[in-house]
Amino acid sequence: QVQLVESGGGLVQPGGSLRLSCAASGFTLGNYAIGWFRQAPGEEREGVSCINNSGSSTYYVDSVKGRFTISRDNAKNTVYLQMNSLRPEDTAVYYCAGDLEADLMTTIVAGAPDQKYLELWGQGTLVTVSS
């Protein structure tokens, strides 16, 4: 079964850190660009960060630059999102998505309204930042 599975969410205090994982099963993750998205309560889903298939290129939206780091280990079929200096406004369900087209992924993470064209989606993991 082809799927992406997110893990690592939870409750963390402001200023704390979490590392999310996006694990692939049923296919070779190394062929895919992977993006992280998030959806806060009552808000639309928005892009956070993405990485190309080799890991040589990354992109971050302004709100997370300098705080979040995306990486991948293709040997483990996993992409990570290290989140530091978390803020209450980072509270959301975080999703990973995959697509063979890295340029498309970057465009969509940056805000293009074409999320439905991305090939694969995980089910999401909840991150709550609260004291």
Describe the structure.
This protein is mainly beta and 131 residues long. Helix content is 6%, strand content 45%. It has one helix spanning 102-109; strands spanning 3-7, 10-12, 18-25, 33-39, 46-51, 58-60, 68-73, 78-83, 92-99, 120-121, 125-129. It is globular and about 40 Å long. The relative contact order is 0.30.
Largest sheet: 7 strands, mixed
Number of strands: 11
- Integer average pLDDT: 96
Tell me the span between the first and last alpha carbons.
39 Å
> What is the share of helical residues?
under 10%
Number of helices: 1
How much of the sequence lies in strands comes to over 45%
Could you give the order of the helices and strands? EEEEEEEEEHEE
Give the overall form. Answer: globular
Cα Rg = 13 Å
**Secondary-structure content class:** mainly beta
Contiguous runs where pLDDT drops below 50 for at least 5 residues: none
